[in-house]
Description:
It contains 21 helices and five strands. It has helices at 9-32, 37-46, 51-59, 67-80, 84-110, 113-125, 138-157, 161-181, 186-203, 208-215, 217-223, 225-231, 245-254, 257-272, 286-313, 326-338, 345-365, 376-380, 394-404, 445-451, 468-474; strands spanning 390-391, 411-412, 454-460, 479-482, 486-492.
Amino acid sequence: MKATSSFGRLDAAVLSAFTLLYVLRVAREAVTRPFWLDEFFTYYTVTMPDWAGLMDVLRHGGDQNPPLFHALTRLSVWAFGESEWAFRLPAMVGYWAFCASLYILGRLIGGSLAAGVTALATPFVTGAFYYATEARPYGLMLGCFGVSLVCYRLYDLAATPEQQRQAGLGLGGALALGVALHYFAIIPIACLWLAELFRAWRTRQPRWGAGAALALPAGVLLYNWPLLREQAQIPYWKQSLSWLELPDFYRWMLGTPTCLALLAWVTLFRFLAPRSKRDDASPDERPERDWLLLGIILALMLPVGWMTLMKASGKTMFTPRYLLPAAGGLAILLARAVQSVKMPAARQLALGVGAILVASTLWAVLQPWRMSPPSVLEAVAKLPNPEQKIVVNALDYFVLKHYFAKELPQVTYLYEFMTYRQPADPKRGLRALLQNPRTPPFEDKEAFVTRHNRFYIVCHKFHEGDYIIPRIKQYNFPLARETAEYLVYEYIDE
Length: 494
């Protein structure tokens, strides 16, 4: 079966309709969700008074991403002002490009409109969609990865050396741009290398052009190496790693109601709808099997392989956001699963997927369009002694100081207390952000305790549950308040 490479008005209509739904969905998310800790790293880095200061913050690990992401975000903020959605606009555009690229890829590897629509919907319904509206580089990185997958497929389909060169340049350029936005874009590139090596072994004919394109991102890493080496001096925030985080990742990515609905709908048609016959053993079909393998590598082997590598090396850098390209692998697998569904079942399949997208979007956008208050606010508001200092962790401190500085001036943060490991160098890590005059100040723990013999300590039940809360309970400090997520103790030193 040969995939079609022609696109017409129906494809344009599908992408236009999806874009409308996408804009409505991300617009609400972008304006109703407050910034969280990682986004404040972006905020205080991007709003440095000048570019030299911004680069100094990056060199000292205030944010550990490449400067290109901050340049694009700075441009967005300069153009549209300092609103939540302006900081998140690059991610919104990048994630849209990811979805649109998967639609094109679904059409190129599956041929049918149903395959394209299914691939288009996949990243929209998974847990990965959160990163479409986070002011971090993951949305942009995914957009580059999606474009690279399209170029990789066009490299397969190229009929002339010139077309192959163009596809190779697009592939290498998109991957290099992805690495320039986030260093961990190298993870899905390793998956492409694995697929390409398997193809070379199967055909006994290495594709030197594709290999050169896949090697191009290494040049970006070398260019950023001096900065990366300095940023790598910051200890990683995560202290431990469990194998149970692997199934947790899949629950997070696949466990949304809309994703479960999509999986059930696709499964129904995959096994019950009539399908066209094809000869899986034919030579023309073997390259299509390579894409099935790539889908498996991205969706299954990427998370498992990364977890295994982290465990073997003693590292703890396993978090869902590093594994977001797995959503692309899932889209490939679902597109392959429905590519042979015959009409009119294929039309019904596509309409059902569209209905899932419309229903999930309407459910979201019909909710109130107002900023959701952070959950910590319930814990710190109207405590018994309103003048008493309130000590919170770094995550809650930035949120409260940004949104409620006037209402809660007594909130403070004690450096190196209730936070992840920080470097000994006073200019590195979180303290590098203090170069921005907007960054709320940190207090020295020992000096603070000397000056104050009574204050509140706000503990998150999950973040501080293993270490801080047991220590506080040993001193029998009175519990001032308990919420669903927080415990507030009153420190008393008499």
